Amino acid sequence: MARHDQRAPTQPDRPVGYGLPTVLAVGLHVLVVVLSVVTLPQRQPEDPQTSSIVQATLVSTETTTDQAQRAEEARARAAARQAEEEAQQAEAEALERAAEEQAAEEAARQAEQEAAEREAAREAEARQREEARETAEAEAQRRAEEAERQAQLREEQEAQRQRQQEEAAEAQRQAEEEARRQEAEAQRRAEEEARQQQEAEEQRRREEEEARRQQETEEQRRREEEEARRQQEAEEQRRREEEEARRQQEAEEQRRREEEEARRQREAEEQRRREEEARRQQEAEEQRRREEEARRAAEQASQGLDRAIEGESESVANARQAQEAANSFINLVRRAVEQAWVIPPGATGNLEAIVQVQLGPSGELFGATIIQSSGDSSFDRSTIQAVEAAAPFSELRQLPAMAQRDFRQFNLRFRPGDVR
Amino acid sequence: MNDSMSIPHLIMSASTVVQLVMLILVIGSILSWVVIFQRTFVMRRARRSHQMFEERFWSGVDLNELYRETPSEQETQGAEQVFRAGFREFNRLMPKTKSPDAILDGVQRSMRVAWSREEERLTLHLVFLATVASASPYIGLFGTVWGIMGSFQALSMAQQATLSTVAPWIAEALIATAMGLFAAIPAVIFYNRLSSESGRLLGKYEDFAEEFHSILHRNLQGRSEAGTA
Questions:
Q1: CB contact under 8 A, B48 and A29
Q2: Residue A117 sits in the same domain as residue A258
Q3: Interatomic CA distance for residues B118 and B79, integer angstroms
Q4: Does A73 reside within a domain?
Q5: Domain that holds residue A244
Q6: Do A236 and A335 lie in a common domain?
């Protein structure tokens, strides 16, 4: 606008209005607001780096008395114990694994046995079936033989009958010859006799025929009876075979059920055995632990004797309790210092500082000095400040008196954890 | 945390007094920037027109011709206005009196009036800029103090006084101070710059008025000598 006026100086200069400045001013403020809103999310991801929780680890508990050594020995012993326990555990695991392998082998063996038994059963069945077949065949043969025998008997009977008939015919003929001979002597008598004889013969023949018929009917009856018997026998045979088959099936089922039960029992037994083994192992471990404890107690008792000789009297139980309480105390201190630690923004993960902390009898901070600097002065200062911020470690009073002396002075190692 | 600590969220969740303070500061900032832009344009245009007028004035053009060429009184500004006022008074007094002192006195008076009008025109609204520059930090501070008061009142009711419970209150209270400074700093800078610029321009006008006065004096000297002679 001004340049425009410059080019045309003859044109009148209008006073500068407020429209354009207002637009510019509002635009400027909007720009500032937008920039403040847009750039903030980019700045915020940097903030969590400074507030990330960092692992501070207790390195060692430095003490001037020999109790520290004892504590260290105890810790070494504990480590050894742990190692032993781990070894025992490993052994137990190996044992368990071996037991499992054995169980697997047994199962395989059982499966084999079962398979064998099943094969045997199948063979037995086959054998039985073969035997049944053989018996049936034998019976059939027997029946055939009996039938043959009966047929022979029938033939013999027929032959006898023929012979009787022949004899009867001869006797007739003789009687006829005698009659013929006697005809001459007494034809009348003979004729009468002949008539009588004829009548008798007829009578006889009738009787014979009747006998024959009776025999035939008897034979028929016998045959029928035999056939009925045979049929009955066959039916009985069949029934017996069916019953046998049924019995075999039942027996097989029985056997199968028994096998399953046996398997179940075996499994239960194995389970029981395993449990017993585990129990025995646990007992053994407990026994071992008890023995170790006893040993430890004995060692500590011996140390206690030494100490008693030296004029110090601390009980073994006290030492153990003190160590446990001390571990919890270390954890408490570590957690408190971690929470109070504000890591400087520039601190990288490579920095590491060890701070020696000296405490008063009631847990108040006597002094925190850096015994190993990280090289970054602000980082070192932050560690000191963290210890000072977390300072009244009143949990120290809850420790046994012996442990209190141990933890009046300890080292803390500061190391920025993974930057999240 | 990201949502609750963002600046718009903090402004929205602030107390009413703090919000009012913030509103006042935003309005002051906007108005001061309006003044800054407007004055900057006015100064730039006055400087340019003054430069052009001086070039024309010292190019040896006849003063009557220059007076006739210049546009009417309402649309002129700066040295041109001073020249017009002085020359018009000179032309009006010339037929009425023979005394050069009286003519020069009248011309000087009218030129001083014109210069005074120019000064008023150039320094318009700069006082508002000065007010914003000096007052907005205090206004922002008031908002901060009020917000922190509220935060401590709320803190007294809380069970545990952790940093996370206090932090949002203090952050939103400090936003008021930040806004006050945001309004004050440009106002201070541009007030100084614009007032020095207007003072320089007014000095140039004064110089021009003195020079024009000396020219008129020279002319009257010749005429009085010619008249007496």
A1: no
A2: yes
A3: 9
A4: no
A5: 93-285
A6: no
The half-sphere exposure of A215 on its side-chain side, counting CA atoms within 13 A, is 10
Q: How confident is the model at residue A420 (pLDDT cuts 50, 70, 90)?
A: very low
CA distance A25 to B38: 10
Cβ distance A25 to B31 less than 8 Å, yes or no, reads yes
**How far does A63 lie from chain B, in Å, by closest CA?**
36
Domain assignment present for residue A386? The answer is yes
Say whether both A146 and A228 belong to one domain.
Answer: yes
CB atoms within 10 A of CB A285: 15
- Strand A353-359's sheet: what is its strand order? A56-58, A409-414, A353-359, A365-372
Pair A204, A111 in one domain: yes
Q: d(Cα A310, Cα A326) in Å, to the nearest integer?
A: 24
CB contact under 8 A, A26 and B30: yes
Contacts of A299 (CB under 8 A, 6+ apart): A77
B120 neighbourhood in chain A, CB within 8 Å: none
Cα–Cα distance between A401 and A410 in angstroms, integer? 16
Q: Is residue A307 part of a domain?
A: no
* A276 sits in which H/E element: helix A187-310
| CA gap A403, A278 in Å, rounded | 38
Total count of domains within chain A: 2
Contact yes or no for B48 and A2 at CB 8 A:
yes
Q: What is the mean pLDDT of residues B15-44?
A: 92
- Looking at the fold, whether A207 and A277 belong to one and the same domain comes out as yes
Q: Which residue of B has its CA nearest to A18?
A: B38
Same domain for A216 and A281, yes or no, is yes
Residue A314: predicted pLDDT: 54
Residue B61 contacts A where some CB pair is shorter than 8 Å? no
Highest mean pLDDT among A79-83, A133-137, A141-145, A400-404: A141-145
Residues A255 and A322 occupy one common structural domain: no
Q: Do A25 and B33 touch (CB under 8 A)?
A: yes
* Exposure b/e, A79-104, CB count within 10 A at least 16 = b: eebeeebeebeeebeeeeeebeeeee
Q: What is the ipTM of this complex?
A: 0.77
Say whether A6 and B182 touch across the interface (CB within 8 A): no
Say whether pLDDT at B32 is over 90.
yes
Q: What CATH number has the domain bearing residue A380?
A: 3.30.1150.10
**B162/B169 Cα distance (integer angstroms):** 12
Domain residue limits, chain B:
7-228
Query: What are the distances in angstroms from CA A100 to CA A96, A104, A106, A263, B159?
Result: 6, 6, 10, 17, 59
In this prediction the pTM is: 0.42
**Within a domain: residue A19?**
no
Smallest CA–CA distance, residue B8 to chain A, in Å, is: 8
Instruction: Give chain A positions within 8 Å (CB) of B29.
Output: 29
Strand-pairing partners, residue B137, are none
Are residues A177 and A257 located together in one domain of the fold?
Answer: yes
Task: Identify from B5, B41, B84 which residue to disrupt to test chain A contact, counting A C-beta atoms within 10 A and taking the largest count.
Answer: B41
Put simply, the answer to whether A40 touches B6 (Cβ < 8 Å) is yes
Q: B42–A44: do the CB atoms touch at under 8 Å?
A: no
Report chain B residues whose CB lies below 8 A from the CB of A340: none
